[in-house]
Write a structure and sequence with these properties.
mainly beta, 4-stranded antiparallel sheet, 5-stranded antiparallel sheet
Length: 408
């Protein structure tokens, strides 16, 4: 019996060491209610909100969730936390806006934010915020929600997304291809041309000039001149997209109906990441370049610690040296496998794909890996046929590059 117990423990250790990092992993949320919003307060603390006034909280970066006491029975459509990390807001039906200054332990309704359903909320700091919603509703606050000022948006469509670049410079998007902007804190709004008539659902700006918008039918728009011009990107999918999050100018994520997309080159190319659900993912957020959460229908919560990249450790054997293997198959269509080996010690690893002009088209992994043998897959969903190169970097030093051929 002692021998069997020892063998069983050895197998457990072996399984734990040879881990499958599948990119996005479904967590236990404790609910089947629809979750509509998610936000990080810090690296480990996150919140999700949804139907029937539900608010969930995690203190270990999304692995475990607890339900906080409901304050309202109204649907909560959006949630946002700011610095200090214990300050947060949630908003939803019938103009409800809740506020916490205790990290979710207590929530209180703020001042009158109107009667229309609020679809999205954004705060620049603990005091300065904005909500948007049905029939062109826009309201702003500069005192943490004690008072809300109704603003004339100039539109009567449902506004579904809002982003505060600064307290004065704000963008909102909505149905019928609507994009509007204010440069004076919401007092006046001007219409921008999206070139679309379909529903737009979310907006996110990286800086004063560069921003992204997503919407139905796989629509992704980008501007590099503060919205004077918006141009369409080509993600290669037609899924409805509901949420967008920018880590920086190059790394951007979008979530939608059974899909999470990622670009590592500012939208020139998009990768369809591996997710295990087919239902709507309404909101996505990151606390770092690699740690993210996505929430949606049926209480689904997905978590990634690898930037959504599916790196599989296929052996815990400690290699003698760094090796980047030739991809297989090669040539390939639509997917190829790439294997690499890391010797002893934890290393900062980057594995990326480049086109023939040396432009990065896909970042397959970036982060810390322990010694072992790893494997991942690549197949650009909107990549052109041709020659590509993939490179392995260790602690920012280039170790090896190999060539592969993609044939559609």
């Amino acid at each position: 019996m002692k021998i069997l117990s020892t063998l069983f423990l050895f197998i457990l250790v072996l399984i734990s060491n040879v881990s499958a990092q599948t990119g996005w992993v479904q967590q236990t949320s404790g609910t089947t209610q629809v979750l509509l919003g998610v936000s990080f307060a810090d690296a480990n603390t996150g919140y999700a909100c949804g139907l029937s006034g539900m608010i969930l909280k995690t203190t270990n970066a999304g692995t475990n969730w607890v339900s906080l006491p409901a304050v309202t029975g109204n649907f909560l459509r959006s949630i946002h936390f700011v610095n200090p990390a214990n300050f947060g807001y949630a908003a939803g039906e019938n103009g409800i806006v809740l506020k916490t200054t205790t990290g979710g332990m207590n929530w209180t309704p703020t001042g009158n934010a109107g009667s229309h359903t609020i679809v999205h909320i954004d705060f620049k700091d603990a005091n300065t915020g904005i909500v948007v919603g049905l029939e062109g509703t826009i309201m702003t606050t500069t005192n943490g929600g004690t008072n809300w000022i109704s603003r004339k948006s100039g539109v009567n469509v449902e506004l579904t997304g809002v982003y505060m670049v600064t307290p004065d410079n704000i963008y909102a998007v909505g149905f019928n291809g609507t994009i509007i902007r204010t440069t004076n804190g919401g007092a006046n709004w001007t219409m921008q041309s999206s070139g679309l008539t379909s529903e737009l659902r979310a907006v996110y700006f990286v800086n004063d000039n560069t921003g992204f918008v997503v919407g139905y039918n796989g629509r992704i728009l980008k501007t590099t001149n503060a919205g004077e011009n918006w141009f369409s990107l080509t993600p290669g999918v037609t899924n409805n997209l509901f949420s967008i999050y920018c880590v920086d100018e190059n790394i951007v994520y979008a979530s939608g109906t059974g899909i999470i997309l990622k670009t590592t080159n500012g939208g020139a190319n998009w990768q369809n990441q591996n997710v295990t659900v087919t239902s709507d993912l309404y909101s996505i957020a990151f606390s770092s370049a690699t740690l993210g959460l996505a929430v949606g229908q049926q209480g689904v919560i997905l978590k990634t610690t690898t930037g959504g990249v599916g790196i599989n450790q296929i052996s815990n054997q400690v290699p003698e040296r760094f090796i980047l293997h030739q991809n297989y198959p090669n040539p390939f269509n639509p997917v190829t496998k790439i294997k690499f080996e890391i010797p002893s010690g934890s290393k900062n690893i980057k594995l990326a794909v480049f086109d023939i002009n040396g432009r990065e088209v896909s970042q397959l992994f970036s982060g810390i890996l322990n010694a072992g043998i790893y494997e991942t897959k690549w197949g650009g969903i909107n990549a052109s046929s041709g020659v590509y190169f993939y490179s392995l970097y260790i602690n920012e030093s280039l170790m090896d590059t190999k060539k592969m051929l993609f044939i559609k």
